[in-house]
Specification:
333 residues, alpha/beta, 9 strands, 44% helix
Length: 333
Amino acid sequence: MKKFELSVLDLAPVKQNKTIHDTFNESLELARFAEQLNYKRFWLAEHHNMASIASSATSVLIGFIANGTEKIRVGSGGVMLPNHSSLVIAEQFGTLESLFPRRIDLGVGRAPGTDGLTAKALGRNPMIINEQFPRQIQELQRYFSVENADSLVRAIPGEGCDIPIYVLGSSTDSAWLAAEMGLPYAFAGHFAPDMMVNAFHIYRENYNPSDKFPQPYIIACVNGIAAETDEEAKKLATTLYQAFLNIIRNDRKPYSPPVNDIDDVWNPMEKAHVMRMLHYSFIGDEETIKTQLLNFQEAFQVDELMITAHIYEQEARLKSYEIFKNVVDGMFG
């Protein structure tokens, strides 16, 4: 079985009866804890117009997390590139890389990270997204290159910075693009599991080696909730279930604490929908998590597993990441 790295995806979750200031401090605490455990990287995801997620100004939050840690890589998982000017993103991440050398990642996606009305407010043009996204990645590569010094438009800071670009996807479209451009590929298995098998196959079979990435590199993002017992983990997971239920119901309220019986909250149709979206979720005690991880890696042979944990209590969230790291360290010695 292929050895894999372990990383963190944080959505800066806003919880009931907590402030956004609390949210940011808990994200920093998690990043510091993940750094102590030797997680590889800590990514933050861009979302907008959601009372449950506070990572809308992603590059600003990356700076806060990087400044409060010492060695863990920090980046975007991702920046929704068509929401922005390529030059502005190059300057922002060039600034971050200049402040925190060799620690910054730039993961980019094409989705809006929000609803249609908010996407319009962000200035997106849905008619040109499929053309715009690949072009913007090329623009970023040009702005980051030393050769762009002769251009009339330059990213300062940014020019000459070694900032790895990762293509994010939740379907097969970005798998084709990442393979064609010879870039690492991160799949959003934590909410869009249906196309993951096909996406990984397409990416590997069609990969075009590049100078920076001669081999394909796959990150799978999944939900992970670990606890001392299966029963405790299942109860903690009811916060995750409620979060996705709120998405289905178009209710963007802050995250809810766990409940004793989730069946009192949803109906059978809602349950089926949520459980399909959460197909790649690892929930249980240490032994259960180990079995789930072994089965997953035997099937997919990923290079990196990125865990996101919708857990209400901060202490339980930290404990969950500790259990995952202990399991993986034990699997590979």
